[in-house]
Design a protein that fits this description.
167 residues, Cyclic Phosphodiesterase, Chain: A, 4 helices, globular, ligase, ligase activity
Length: 167
């Protein structure tokens, strides 16, 4: 499965990695694999056609800001283990971009929920009590400028290509 993602700066990935250490029994993302998903790209077409459709949908997309504002967790996840502990991200422009892509690509049944909640996953599974303790911590906001997007290959956990903003 492919997706269009926002690359996260080192400061965000470092924070996620540090917080993950307090969730030892959970699955933690390997270093360098933290991203912020915008939309999964699915369809019967080849990857190159999916990428073309996504690029067409984001024509004119300006750069924008994202801001990590805190730590939270999901317990009711559509697929995979829970809880999912994450860094919450705020960005009105990211929501608009997700909406543009959602008009072109259907939600992935059993994976995506109707409500888009931008986040950077810290860890999945493990103890709910530990998840609550990590989520109760205060962190400083981290704001960054988004000037590129990444097409991500979820099967191989690696980037396929990028697009610079403005698109």
């Amino acid at each position: 499965m492919y997706s269009l993602n926002v690359p996260v700066p080192g400061q965000v990935a470092k924070l996620a990695g540090e917080l993950a250490r307090d969730l030892p029994e959970a699955y933690r993302r390997p270093r360098g694999e933290h991203t912020l998903g915008i939309k999964r790209l699915v369809g019967d077409e080849s990857y190159s056609r999916l990428e073309t459709k996504a690029r067409e949908a984001i024509i004119g997309q300006p750069g924008f800001e994202c801001r990590v504002t805190g730590i939270d967790f999901f317990t009711d996840v559509p697929k995979g283990s829970s809880p999912v502990v994450y860094l919450a991200v705020e960005s009105p422009e990211l929501h608009r971009l997700h909406g543009r892509l959602a008009a072109v690509f259907e939600p992935v049944e059993g994976v995506e929920t109707p409500e888009y909640s931008p986040h950077v996953t810290i860890a999945r599974g493990g103890s709910l009590d530990r998840a609550k303790r990590v989520a109760s911590r205060d962190i400083d906001d981290i704001t960054w400028a988004v000037d590129e997007l990444v097409f991500w290959d979820g099967q191989h956990n690696q980037p396929v290509s990028t697009v610079s903003l403005p698109a």
